[in-house]
Amino acid sequence: MAPGDQSARVIRERDRGLLRAMGVTLLISACLVGGVLGLVGLRVNQVELSYRLEQLRQTRGQLEEVNRQLRVELATLRALARIESKARGELGMLSPSGSQVRMAREYVPGRAPDAASLRTAWEEPPAPPGPRAR
To answer: Is residue 78 part of a domain?
Structure first.
């Protein structure tokens, strides 16, 4: 090649339209891949949440069954016949006689309570005022 011969030398120019088309194609492809990965991530999260929800439903069912059993046990333990038989059998308690039962006065709203109306059924009547015997 002679220094004066410029026809043999090839000069390549970059095609700006081709570069722009490749950039746009790459950007669109990246957006599509990102969207697909986002959808896959959402689906995986949905599956995990459905498993967790099923587990919580099973736990709830078990707890409801335990709650039902405890309510039955509570009702059994609160049964008056069972309490009475336990008091008679284990503690040796007896039914009170007529002289051991005292009626309490009923509180009437609107009246100022006096000492006698506040006494309970098992308290003795108040001692009269005056000197106390020792």
So the answer is: yes
In a domain, 60, yes or no: yes
Give the span between the Cα atoms of 67 and 73, in whole angstroms. 10
Token pair, residue 58, equals 């099973």
Sequence-distant (≥ 6) Cβ neighbours of residue 117 within 8 angstroms:
105, 107, 108, 111
Question: Is there a domain that residue 61 lies in?
Answer: yes
Q: What is the DSSP annotation of 59-114?
A: HHHHHHHHHHHHHHHHHHHH-HHHHHHHHHHTS---PPPGGG--PPPPP-TTSPP-
Residue pLDDT, tens place only, 41-81: 999 999 999 999 999 999 999 999 999 999 999 999 999 88
* Each residue's pLDDT tens digit, 4-13: 566 667 777 7
What token pair was written down for 100? 């051991």
Q: Tell me the pTM.
A: 0.46
